[in-house]
Amino acid sequence: MTVSGSVKKALIVGGGIIGSSIAWHMATAGVKVTLLEARSAAAGASSNSFGWINATAAESADYFALRMQAITDYKQMLQRQPKDSEARRCTRFAGSLWWETQGSELTELGARLHNYGHCVREIGSDEFSKLEPNVANPPESCLYTELDGAAEGDTLTRFFLQQAASKGATVLLGASLNNLLTANGCVCGVQSSHGKYEADVVILATGAATQTIAESVGVNLPMENRRGLIVHTNPVPDVISQVINADDIHFRQAPDGHIVMGEIFSGGTFSAKPHDTPAGFSRELLRRLRKRLPGVENLRIERVQLGTRPVPLDGYPAVGMPASLPGLYVVTTHSGITLAPLLGRLVTEELVECRRSVLLSTYHPDRFM
Ligand SMILES: Cc1cc2nc3c(=O)[nH]c(=O)nc-3n(C[C@H](O)[C@H](O)[C@H](O)COP(=O)(O)OP(=O)(O)OC[C@H]3O[C@@H](n4cnc5c(N)ncnc54)[C@H](O)[C@@H]3O)c2cc1C
Q: For the domain that residue 213 is a member of, what is the CATH number?
């Protein structure tokens, strides 16, 4: 279902990358926006993310289409910003190399992505070494795409919030939603730590907390959130340009020189390995990284972050207004760093222009009802 009338006044709960992007888009469209964030900007998953912007991790044609459009929206959004803007400085589109598996599995994944229309191609070790000469032990084959990028989720979130504020949005940090207010079967506002707020729509962009909040008003939104560990090294001179997804580690170099690394995406979750402590697992990641980058001296761990990935039960985004509760709009998803600029635009189109994009047709939260 879609909304019945154009939204003039919106309350957004959650100051992660998703809520911030929606706030910016809605404020730009002339909506009176108030955003409540319980802690600080990007305090949740958005500052604990690996930050890979991609269409590669798409397990269906629909999801691929959404992610491809997300990359297009990213590039357009960045082009509109001045060269020295924070958004452009913290985002880089330099491609990715992927070999979490080898052999037929790798080839099949490449073929599936190709069928969706992805420009990914399988390359061998010689081409790999030309692209990333500083990475040791190149794989026999891997999937290469020029399409992908990476962003610093915390910086981008703060940038979106600043843009939203410059367009008139009120951003309240340290302000938490206590409960949703309803009248005549509709959500009409919230009771918060900063008092009562009323709005035409309350947008829940509360990441991993969304299931609990939605359930408090009878909306079923099952989630299987997963913890993940991200480790930052000290800054080092430029050594790699792509996002590298190897079979035992994924890593990339941030624009400020830090290497950002984590466990492989398909290797289960950090919390699924009870014998691992964050400190112990970080040391293991550093050992793996040093083997990949033997020419880099003095690599050491500077920051260890444990985050929670918001993941709707079937793994796909949940975006829309539950039919059972008009006035409430939920937006929760994994891959939020990839999807944030696009979702900000699509949610605004739906709520302001009453036009729901076909790209969202499979992602309505009512699929769980
Ligand atoms: C280890 C890890 C690796 C990842 N890697 C990638 C990747 O490579 N690429 C990618 O695209 N995505 C990745 N993700 C996923 C991505 O980071 C998330 O999908 C995205 O950050 C979600 O953004 P969000 O704004 O929905 O949630 P969050 O950033 O979690 O923001 C939700 C906000 O809501 C606030 N909140 C909650 N409850 C309340 C309340 N009651 N009142 C007020 N505020 C409230 C929280 O404080 C929080 O700041 C990764 C995530 C993790 C943890």
A: 3.50.50.60
Give the number of the atom of ligand 1 that is nearest the alpha carbon of residue 52. 8
Confirm or reject: Cβ of 206 under 6 Å from ligand 1.
Answer: yes
Read off the pTM: 0.97
CA of 14 relative to ligand 1 center, distance in Å: 9
Encode 350-368: b = buried (16+ Cβ within 10 Å), e = exposed: bbbeeebbebbebbbbeeb
Q: How far is the CA of 122 from the centre of ligand 1 (A)?
A: 32
Q: How far apart are CA 16 and CA 340, in angstroms?
A: 10
Task: Find the range with the poorest average confidence among 219-228, 259-268, 337-346, 349-358.
Answer: 259-268
Q: Which domain holds residue 189?
A: 9-47+154-223+313-368
What pLDDT, in 10s, does the model give residues 171-225? 999 999 999 999 999 999 999 999 999 999 999 999 999 999 999 999 999 999 9
Where among 290, 308, 326 does a domain terminate? 308
| C-beta 12 within 6 A of ligand 1 | no
